[in-house]
Amino acid sequence: MGAEALPVTANYNNYCSGGEAPLVLGLQASALVDHVARVDWSLLDQLPGERGGSIPVAIEELEHILGEVKTHIISSPDDSLPMKTIAGGSVANTIRGLSAGFGISCGIIGACGDDEQGQLFVSNMSSHAVSLSRLRMKRGPTAQCVCLVDALGNRTMRPCLSSAVKLHPQNYVIQADDLTREDFKGCKWLLLRYGIINLEVIQAAILIAKQEGLFVSMDLASFEMVRNFRSPLLQLLESGGIDLCFANEDEATELLRGTEGEQKADPEAALEFLAKHCRWAVVTLGPNGCVAKHGKEIVRVPAIGKAKAVDATGAGDLFASGFLYGLVKGLSLEECCKVGSCSGGSVIRSLGGEVTPENWQWMYKQMQTKGLTLPDIPK
Predict the structure, then answer these.
(1) What value, to the nearest 5°, has the Cα angle with vertex 142 and ends 153 and 215?
(2) How many helices (H) and strands (E) does the chain have?
(3) Cβ-Cβ contacts under 8 Å for 168 (sequence gap 6 or more)
(4) Residue 62: which residues within 8 A CB-CB, separation 6 or more?
(5) CB burial class (10 A; 0-12, 13-18, 19+) of residue 319?
């Protein structure tokens, strides 16, 4: 069944009634809702796959995990709810952060189910001024992901994408429901996340983005995705269509192990490898900060020492928000990394991939302390 334009709600009408194209466009082929909870290690030990990673599961397994969460949940005085259900997905986290925390005009392109989870996604994103005029609604369920956070703040994700609605890029040229050049016209950046399920739509989006003169940013998703689908990832990088690449330490070293040998699989070597194919390359190092390269310039920036790590969910996504804000504003490479360090530090102070108003204020104070220009947020 074909896709439909989303029904206009009060919030939707406020942010998606036309006007100028968003500066940053995020491609998330399927809307996603995150169920985030702090759980004890015994539940994580029961799950197949490595702790700290992200492995797709069927709807039956996702529902089983959600049922088990109830008996393994860890309450925290910092959180009013034991489990948070919010709009999720790496791209959604990044553009929501860019819009809400930095005042950058953002939109999302993709598909959304017509169920309760889909309406939650629409409500959450539109409430943060993210344009949804390029989000198609389709009949069927919205994708979901269980984000399990351990006592140390590390997160393990189990997304259910198999039954979710998706765009169909093979018809994007001739059908209104698919990607078209009009979707990208007037935008400056396209943000995407590497994924084998949506590889065709990613390839199609990059092609159109380049035709329209957009910069393209890509996140490497997870070390399992890099490990299991390295060949098509390398083809994307070697195509020259990726201008900016974000990788965490595990993803970066996993990429290198299959390309240049075990002995050189370290973040610095991975940074050099990525920089051969991308104008900007960034490797985040968790509590050790990040390293980045642009042209011949290499910078290393420490993490925010005062950040209280409650949940690592969204740390890389919000780092990308800050870094991209810096690029949009013409900041230096080092300043981009510093802003990214501040925004990445802001989201780990509470549960889930959405920064609270209190933690945005914390971030602004950190930026001010470092001499960074604060964003001009519309009132």
Answers:
(1) 75
(2) 14, 14
(3) 175, 177, 178, 201
(4) 144, 146, 158, 160
(5) buried
pLDDT in tens, 174-209: 233 478 999 999 999 999 999 888 888 899 999 999
Complete edge-to-edge strand list for the sheet that includes strand 4-5: 4-5, 131-138, 106-113, 24-30, 189-193, 215-219, 244-248, 280-284, 290-294, 297-301
pTM of structure: 0.88
For helices 357-369 and 90-102, give the axis angle rounded to 10 degrees: 70
Tokens matching residue 129: 């001024």
Helices assigned H by DSSP within 18-148: 41-46, 59-72, 90-102, 116-126
The Cα-based distances of 164 to 72, 111, 257, 300 in angstroms read 27, 9, 32, 39
- The answer to whether 178 and 169 have CB atoms below 8 angstroms apart is yes
Q: Where are the alpha helices (DSSP H) in 331-373?
A: 333-347, 357-369
Minimal CA–CA distance to 191: which of 176, 180, 207, 206? 206
Task: Give pLDDT, residue 14.
Answer: 35
Whether the CB-CB separation of 31 and 89 falls below 8 Å is answered with yes
CA distance 206 to 208: 6
Q: What is the DSSP string of 114-164?
A: SSHHHHHHHHHHHTTT-EEEEEEEESSPPEEEEEEE-TTS-EEEEEE-TTS
The structure tokens 């029961």 sit at: 46
Q: H/E element holding 81?
A: none
pLDDT digits (tens, 9 = 90+) for 121-136: 999 999 999 999 999 8
